[in-house]
Amino acid sequence: FGVPYVLRNPSVDGEGAFGMVPVPLGGVLTYPPPDYAVQSFADGRGLVIIDEANSHPGMLAPVMCLILEGRVGSCTMPGGVRRGCTMNPPERSANGVELPLPMANRMMNLNFLPPTVAEHIEYMMSLSNGKLTEVSPLNCATEEARVLGQWGEAFAMGVGLETSFL
Questions:
Q1: Which of 34, 61, 158, 163 is the most buried (most CB within 10 A)?
Q2: For the stretch 149-164, what's the b/e string if a residue is b when 16 or more beta carbons lie within 10 angstroms of its beta carbon?
Q3: What's the rounded Cα separation, in Å, for the pair 86 and 66?
Q4: pTM, 2 dp
């Protein structure tokens, strides 16, 4: 998308990457934001991806705070910084758990199935000289304008579906 991005993993990066390490400053404990939260998004746009978001149960609260509120430590991300998660189902991840309902219900969930053996073989055989074909990146401003242009109708459809279900 042509914007800065950061990939974080709660099990690998630990508490500091989510602003959970208190530091004494002038007789008060503060929670300084990690460097990526301050340096990477100076222009107010970007993407934070939390990989394996459900693999460290003790980190679900700060992950939820980052994803839902855009806060990490004492820092609030600029409004143009988008946030998302990737994860495997709990039964297929190391130490994986179900997401808490307040988090799961506020996220779009996309399920991806692995390719079949035949699909994988077809893909592998389609490579030219062992090199992946280049994909041109999407333009972030164009994509955002496209999404916002369709948002009214999509939101109305979502409200209709959700309320009819209830």
A1: 34
A2: eeeeeeeeeeeeeeee
A3: 14
A4: 0.68
